[in-house]
Amino acid sequence: MIPVKKLSNGVEMPVLGFGTWKLKDEKCTEMVKYALDIGYPAIDTAQVYLNEEAVGEGIRQSSRKREDVFFTSKIRNRFQGYDHTLQAVEATLTRTGLDYIDLFLIHWPGENMYVPTWKALVRMCEEGMIRSIGVSNFYPEHMETCAQETGVMPMVNQIEMHPYLMQYEVVDYCRQNGVFLVSWSPLSAGGQTRQDPKTSALGNTGKIPSGNVMEDPVICEIAKHHGKTPAQTVLRWHVQNGFGVVPKSSNPDRIRQNMELFDFELTLDEMDQIRELTKKQIRIGDDGRTYRFLLLDELIAAGKEPKRDRFGNYL
């Protein structure tokens, strides 16, 4: 039985979900169905992944009832702003074919549009189209502003976290304010592909420091002691820290292995050993304080109107 975390609004969210970044079309549908059929209780996607339709099909093809699947998606950056957010949530419902969304997140804070975006999500949560709302890649000042402007603190914050990067400032704030932390890229996978080319153009070199968590001698030794894989050991570290995890894989064996986290426990000394690794502070994705993007209206004004999907919604 996979544990759940009760969010601030009382909704129960599984601590383990199946991530779908870079999965597309039939392969995405196949892997989502497989993950659900072997026991994963949650699926994580985002509008920018361009796979919501395939994810929805995977949910329908699986043996799970809709109420037994916790579905999360995130608003694409270009759709931020009150009216565009309302339309974007409707687009996710249309593409997935679902009647409601369990959790919808603001993917990145950006500069000045996350507040009206948050207000739109608060409204749609109150209307029942979304059960829970949260953010991703937000710092304390962003979450504090959301709460001050609406009286509603984000229920979840999904951030980059792994043994080479513990975002202590964000972790401490979320723990103090009842915000459930979920780790994306929990195995420190993805490397350079996690960074947006636009970020590099703004002055970031785009170079990822060397180091592979899965080959780290500390991780490997702890894994050997428990008869587990390095990935299982790292995922267990997240869970014991009180974080949720959404590991992604297209390999059925690894998908199954990533579920096997709940039949062993790391010792306090082992937790401390891994905590020492976080001093490396190796970030493989963009930084929510500096990452910027163009909005839909700005793209249209610049003559770069996005394509539409088969339902007529902007991509």
Could you give the topology of this structure?
Elements lengths: L3 E3 L5 E3 L3 E2 L5 H13 L4 E3 L7 H10 L8 E6 L6 H15 L4 E6 L7 H13 L3 E7 L3 H11 L5 E5 L7 H9 L3 E5 L12 H5 L15 H10 L3 H11 L3 E2 L6 H6 L10 H10 L18 H6 L14
Parallel strand pairs: 3-4, 4-5, 5-6, 6-7, 7-8, 8-9, 9-10
Antiparallel strand pairs: 1-2
Helix pairs in contact: 1-2, 2-3, 3-4, 4-5, 8-9
Describe the overall structure.
The structure is a single chain. This protein has 315 residues and is α/β, with parallel strands linked by helices. The chain has one domain: Alpha-Beta Barrel (TIM Barrel). The chain is built from 12 helices and 10 strands. It has helices at 25-37, 52-61, 82-96, 114-126, 140-150, 168-176, 197-201, 217-226, 230-240, 252-257, 268-277, 296-301; strands at residues 4-6, 12-14, 18-19, 42-44, 70-75, 101-106, 130-136, 156-160, 180-184, 244-245. It has an 8-stranded parallel β-sheet. Strands 1-2 form a two-stranded antiparallel sheet. β6, α4 and β7 form a beta-alpha-beta unit. α2 runs parallel beside α3 (82-96) and α8 crosses α9. The longest helix is centred in the N-terminal third of the chain and has 15 residues, at 82-96. It is globular. Mean pLDDT is 94; it is low at 200-208.
At the fourth level of CATH, the homologous superfamily is NADP-dependent oxidoreductase domain
Query: Major sheet: order of its strands?
Result: 3-4-5-6-7-8-9-10
Please name the CATH architecture: Alpha-Beta Barrel
Q: What percentage of the residues does DSSP assign to strands (E)?
A: 5-15%
Helix content: 25-40%
Q: Helical region count?
A: 12
Give the H and E element order: EEEHEHEHEHEHEHEHHHEHHH
CATH fold-type name: TIM Barrel
Main β-sheet, in a few words? 8 strands, parallel
Rg measurement, Å: 19 Å
**Assigned CATH class:** Alpha Beta
Q: Specify the structural class.
A: alpha/beta
Shape: globular
**Average predicted local confidence, pLDDT:** 94
The total domain count is 1
| Terminal Cα span | 37 Å
Beta strands, count: 10
Low-confidence stretches: 200-208
